[in-house]
Design a protein that fits this description.
The protein has 28 helices and twelve strands. It is α/β, with parallel strands linked by helices. It folds into three domains: 158 residues, no CATH class; 165 residues, no CATH class; 247 residues, Rossmann fold, CATH 3.40.50. The strands form four sheets. It has a six-stranded mixed beta sheet with strand order 1-3-2-6-7-9, with helices on both faces. It has a two-stranded antiparallel ribbon with strand order 4-5. Strand 6, helix 23 and strand 7 form a beta-alpha-beta unit.
Length: 647
């Protein structure tokens, strides 16, 4: 059976891309759709290994140059088109501050290296996370291209022109690759999850799994009638396993690790079933339906376009509403269909690629270099724009953070060490403690000014992204449970219990806790502190913006008139989840006689509207943290809330 085209594989591509797009579009019951990428890896291992072995056994060699030309012809034109259009759109829709980081990633993507960027990038806590990067999805293309680079050499080395003995050796070699890569992936998912997720050697086991299906089952007809009879059921089981992973997995668990075995096995079963006589029944029949065949054909183009269209759409509209996301998905599908029809498919059929392979490689490399040069030019333009007086005050707001961060009071996830910063006289008769995550640390300028007199000493103990809730938390940004947070919180609470402060101020940003965890986890913290502190103030969290405040103001200042919108960088305060958390904390505070719940939201968002700029001040330095100068301006309100004399 030929491996060059199979309807079940084309349909499986459609299922994979549907899962990926659904997860990225925020479909709540398909949060695990990211596993579609795992399916693509298995398919690549199956198809590429099959083609290489067929060529090697038929001719005794593998022609590397034509192989690489075919891969470039398949992937590069559509990729460069996406990078060009999205890069140009970003210069219109994004602020200059955003453009620099985005365009650097575009350069890495043009060189098939963006997975290295995301795996090794040492992101600052207050920098935008990778989930806001227009080119985040290109990490898997980097993995694929690196696979294409090394796989032919591995196959050729193991075959060694040795007939069936070489094929047997290749099976063993693929088994070794699968086992070694899988074990390393599971181990590093615990200790270095970004490497396990983004790096090709840690994903090689999925390619090897696909390769083994071809080598063991697809290359020759299996002799087992029982296996042949089971083919339809195996395909349906594999398809069900893939869909179940999309429904049941989510980003709140360490991945890939052992969890990735499930979608990988699902893809293996579907491809295995289709490789057996009669395997086109069952899952094969479903996957051969015309709509899935069409989606499978354009799956690569849709993968390229869906993610940047979703992010740029949010940047323009400022809305995450489901109806907007559905519209953006439709736009990306239309772009994918056009890209496939006008660029991808015609160039794949253009025979000059293989007629002049060296020229094709040189032109490809020159095109990649041109994209890098163009992104460099756009980056310089963005840097120049940031120097204009109109934007400098907005750019300055990005770094308008409390002084505690420059002093090294906060160590994020890198350690569990309790770092205390002290302000005021050591001999002050009264001691206050400000403790929590960055959403509490943002209030330091206001608290410091409110307590800045001879009667108070202020201690600041913070750890970014670490809630003051006694419950384990999985931190998606580092890809694992945030164990340093629990260790730090316990040590910090012991320190405060011994200190016995006159005033203790704390709070937490929203986190992925259940209502019961919010209530009981906060109550356990208060049960430890209430006997030790004279007064405790539990601060309600400030509303987050659905956009980055300074960046929105920059976008509005620079955007061409024909792209202007009615949005004025404002939003309603709160949402259903934030309101539920607020009610849980308020109820918990009421259990303790010396605990007060303080909500400064009316002063942050007066008149029921949160603004990126208020009375000439930039209110937020990103989408969720108040700027230091705005927080300091609320010192009188903070003083009244703490019942101390304002300075």
């Amino acid at each position: 059976m030929s491996t060059f085209f199979r309807e079940d594989i084309e349909g499986l591509r459609a299922i994979a891309i549907l899962l990926v797009v659904a997860a990225h579009a925020g479909v709540p019951w398909l949060a695990g759709g990211f596993i579609g990428v795992d399916v693509f890896f298995v398919l690549s291992g199956f198809l590429i290994t099959g083609k290489l072995v067929q060529e090697a056994t038929a001719t005794g060699r593998i022609s590397l140059l034509p192989f690489y030309v075919r891969r470039l012809r398949r992937l590069l034109p559509a990729l460069l088109l996406m990078l060009l259009v999205v890069g140009l759109a970003s210069t219109w829709l994004l602020s200059p501050f955003e453009q620099s980081e985005q365009l650097f990633t575009a350069q890495m993507a043009a060189l098939w290296l963006s997975n290295f960027h995301f795996a090794l990038g040492n992101f600052d806590y207050f920098a935008a996370g990778s989930e806001t990067n227009l080119y985040l999805h290109t990490w898997s293309l980097g993995v694929e291209e690196q696979f294409y680079l090394v796989w032919p050499a591995l196959v050729l080395w193991l075959l060694a022109r040795d007939g069936e003995r070489g094929v047997a050796r290749l099976r063993i070699g693929m088994g070794v690759v699968l086992l070694a890569s899988l074990l390393a992936c599971i181990a590093l998912t615990r200790t270095a999850p970004l490497l396990a997720f983004y790096m090709m050697p840690l994903r090689a086991w999925q390619f090897a799994a696909g390769a083994l299906v071809w080598l063991v089952f697809a290359r020759t007809t299996p002799a087992s009638p029982r296996l042949t009879r089971a083919a339809p059921g195996l395909g349906l089981l594999g398809l069900a396993l893939i869909v179940a992973c999309g429904l049941l997995l989510d980003a709140q668990r360490a991945y890939p690790g052992a969890w990735a075995l499930l979608p990988t096995m699902g893809a293996v079963l579907v491809v295995l079933a289709g490789s057996l006589p009669g395997g086109q029944r069952g899952a094969g029949a479903l996957l051969s339906l015309p709509p899935l065949q069409w989606l499978g054909r354009i799956s690569y183009s849709w993968y390229l376009w869906h993610w940047p269209v979703l992010l740029l759409g949010v940047a323009y509209t400022g809305s995450q509403a489901p109806e907007y996301r559905a519209l953006l998905v439709a736009v990306s599908l239309a772009l994918a269909a056009g890209s496939h029809a006008l660029v991808e498919a015609p160039l794949r059929r253009w025979r000059q690629w293989l007629a002049f392979p060296r020229t094709a490689v040189l032109v490809s490399l020159a095109s990649m270099a041109a994209m890098v040069a163009l992104a460099t030019h756009w980056t310089r333009q963005a840097s120049d724009a940031l120097q204009t007086p109109a934007l400098q005050r907005y750019a300055a707001a990005r770094t308008d953070a409390p002084a505690i961060y420059a002093m090294g009071c906060d160590d994020w996830y890198r350690s569990a060490t309790v770092r205390t910063c002290s302000f005021g006289s050591e001999q002050a008769p009264r001691t206050a403690v400000l403790m929590g995550d960055s959403h509490v640390g943002q209030w330091f300028p206001a608290v410091h000014r409110a307590l800045d007199n001879a009667g108070w000493r202020l201690l600041v103990i913070t750890k970014s992204a670490c809630p003051m809730v006694d419950a384990p938390i999985f931190y998606a940004r580092i890809g694992r449970e945030y164990t340093e947070c629990a260790q730090w919180r316990d040590a910090a609470l012991q320190k405060i219990q011994a200190l016995k402060p006159d005033l203790f101020i704390f709070g937490s940003a929203p986190a992925a806790f259940t209502p019961q965890q919010w209530t009981e986890g906060t109550a356990r913290v208060l049960a430890r502190l209430s006997p030790a502190a004279t007064r405790i103030v539990l601060l309600a969290d400030t509303p987050a913006l659905p956009f980055d405040g300074p960046q929105c103001l920059m976008q509005q200042a620079l955007r061409p008139a024909w792209l202007a919108d009615a949005r004025r960088c404002t939003s309603a305060p709160g949402n259903a989840d934030a309101d539920a958390i607020r009610r849980s904390l308020q109820a918990t505070a009421s259990r303790f006689a010396n605990v007060e719940f303080v909500d400064l939201r009316p002063h942050v968002c007066p008149d029921g509207l949160c603004r990126a700029e208020l009375d000439g001040r930039v209110t937020y330095r990103d989408n969720q943290h108040l700027s230091g100068s705005f927080a300091e301006s609320l010192a009188p309100e903070m003083a009244r809330a703490l019942r101390v004399a304002a300075q």
